[in-house]
Amino acid sequence: MSAAIPPADESLYAPLQAAAWRLGHLGQSLDGFIGTAGGRADAINGPENLDHLHRLRALADAVVVGAGTVVADDPRLTVRRVAGDNPVRVVVDPRGALLPDHRVFQDGAAPTLQASLEPGPAPGRAERLVVARRDGALALDDLFAQLAARGLRRIFVEGGGQTVSRCLAAGLLDRLQLCLAPLLLGGGRRGLAVPEAASMAEALRAPCRTYAMGADVLFDFDLSV
Ligand SMILES: NC(=O)c1ccc[n+]([C@@H]2O[C@H](COP(=O)([O-])OP(=O)(O)OC[C@H]3O[C@@H](n4cnc5c(N)ncnc54)[C@H](OP(=O)(O)O)[C@@H]3O)[C@@H](O)[C@H]2O)c1
After folding, report:
1. Ligand 1 atom with minimal separation from the 39 CA
2. In contact, 190 and 160? CB cutoff 8 Å
3. Which of 4, 46, 110, 177 is most deeply buried (CB count within 10 A of its CB)?
4. Ligand 1 pocket test target in 50, 168, 189 with most atoms within 8 Å of CB
5. How far is the CA of 6 from the centre of ligand 1 (A)?
């Protein structure tokens, strides 16, 4: 089943009709937090952004999250709010330390890969993907190359802050979407971390469109130019 795209939002989704893209998305408070220190992140944005997230999943071949997100939110990463197929689920778990009882590893709703630095038994119904190490960290370019070799070229990096930030720092994203919710958290899990610009001229700027999503505003940066 192909994903249903509302005609009003065609410009938002048109770039995602391409055969290959890598998009990172974070929903955050106005003061830059993506979750409370110990809690979940699923109530930051409104239902319109949740629909958008599910549409991104439906358009993607694979959805990628970090181990921290699986521990905090226990997400299913499936398509439930719109029409479309579930993407392959990829959990970046360098140490292979996640317990098998998380829903992505147990529910069998879609093929699930655990991207780790060493071979070993995969949790639950997942498959372990051994990824190269660079500078002590998991080499995300190698991960994406292995996904592409499996035909997975439309990649949605759904969180959390560390994983999206690492993908951005490695120059691996074509698009970055930040959805700002009209609330202030005052503290909690930081969202995007980018190197400090020494001057305004060095700030990371890219072509950007904005979209109203209920009370939230989505900033859609085109990093491919
Ligand atoms: N609002 C949103 O849009 C949104 C979306 C998703 C999640 N969240 C929230 O975000 C929080 C989790 O985010 P987070 O930033 O703490 O964690 P995260 O990005 O989900 O996961 C961080 C972990 O991923 C691993 N990792 C990812 N890429 C790596 C690399 N290239 N090399 C080595 N390790 C890598 C590391 O695992 P190891 O420590 O095992 O090495 C790291 O600790 C939760 O509160 C969740 O609710 C919010």
Report:
1. 45
2. no
3. 177
4. 189
5. 31
Average pLDDT over residues 71-99: 97
Q: Residues lining ligand 1, CB < 6 A?
A: 26-27, 34-35, 40-41, 44, 65-69, 72-73, 92-95, 97, 137-138, 140, 158-163, 166, 189
- Mean per-residue pLDDT, 33-50: 85
Q: Which fold has domain 18-186+206-222?
A: Dihydrofolate Reductase, subunit A (3.40.430)
pLDDT in tens, 152-207: 999 999 999 999 999 999 999 999 999 999 999 999 998 999 989 999 999 999 99
Distance in Å, CA 64 to ligand 1 centroid: 10
Q: Hey, whose CA ends up nearest to atom 7 of ligand 1?
A: 160
